């Protein structure tokens, strides 16, 4: 996957319809909002277009120029919010920040804007301005729902530090001492704790379970003795 905003002009049918989606991999269209202007960085708003939100990405297609459109994957959106502050931007909009693969140097971006050349690889901000501001809350909710469908990939190193272990694995680590007061379940699929490399949580859980069992046994014995006295 390529991070950042990119050009997108693939339309269904005669080129004037909805964007082409990756339906083979389960991508679905979630929402369509006509009459939306797009503002890239600090440039002037683009001519009005139609906003398409899928389960994977946000697509804006111009209603005037059929060869103009942009797309950004939800995995590249680091932030999205409703902006109604006129000091931040004159029109109510959805404000979003975009992760890019470019370095933090923004000087190239400024030079490109002065020369009217848009380098999408350096774009870190995007605003979507609907003609009807009443649609902002709905758009924001759809953004949130689709963002939840695209969680950040888990790094292998991070994944290795967060793992689930079984009682049998802890038993192996503690050895096979006959006088051990720990009695572990023989089912290795019974997960008893989650840890970042320490077994303290698992031991606590097992200790509580053992104490509960002993408590139940004590209750049963007391109940049996009471019955014997009657």
UniProtKB/TrEMBL annotation:
InterPro entries: ICln, ICln/Lot5/Saf5, PH-like_dom_sf
Domain of life: Eukaryota
Localisation per UniProt entry: Cytoplasm; Nucleus
Gene3D superfamilies: Pleckstrin-homology domain (PH domain)/Phosphotyrosine-binding domain (PTB)
One cellular component (GO) term of this entry: methylosome
Keywords assigned by UniProt, alphabetized: Cytoplasm, Nucleus
One GO term (biological process): chloride transport
Major localization listed first in the record, in broad terms: cytoplasm
The keyword Acetylation appears for this protein: no
A Pfam entry, by short name: Voldacs
Membership in a protein family: Belongs to the pICln (TC 1.A.47) family.
PANTHER family in UniProt: CHLORIDE CONDUCTANCE REGULATORY PROTEIN ICLN, METHYLOSOME SUBUNIT PICLN
Name of the featured protein: Chloride conductance regulatory protein ICln
Native species: Rhizophora mucronata (Asiatic mangrove)
């Amino acid at each position: 996957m390529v991070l950042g905003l990119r050009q997108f002009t693939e339309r269904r049918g005669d080129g004037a319809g909805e964007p082409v989606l990756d339906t083979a991999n389960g991508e679905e269209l979630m929402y369509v909002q006509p009459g939306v202007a797009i503002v890239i960085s600090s440039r002037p708003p683009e001519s009005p277009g139609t906003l398409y939100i899928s389960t994977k990405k946000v697509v804006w297609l111009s209603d005037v120029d059929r060869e103009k459109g942009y797309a950004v994957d939800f995995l590249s959106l680091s932030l999205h919010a409703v902006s109604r502050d006129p000091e931040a931007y004159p029109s109510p909009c959805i404000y979003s920040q975009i992760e890019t693969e470019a370095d933090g140097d923004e000087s190239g971006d400024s030079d490109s804007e002065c020369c009217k050349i848009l380098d999408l690889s350096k774009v870190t901000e995007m605003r979507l301005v609907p003609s009807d501001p009443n649609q902002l809350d709905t758009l924001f909710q759809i953004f949130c729902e689709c963002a939840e469908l695209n969680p950040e990939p888990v790094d292998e190193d991070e994944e290795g530090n967060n793992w689930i272990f079984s009682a049998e694995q802890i038993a192996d680590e503690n050895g096979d001492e006959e006088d051990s007061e720990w009695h572990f379940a023989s089912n290795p699929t019974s997960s008893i704790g989650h840890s970042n490399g320490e077994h303290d949580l698992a031991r606590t859980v097992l200790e509580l379970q053992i104490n509960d069992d002993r408590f139940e046994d004590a209750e049963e014995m007391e109940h049996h003795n009471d019955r014997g006295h009657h």
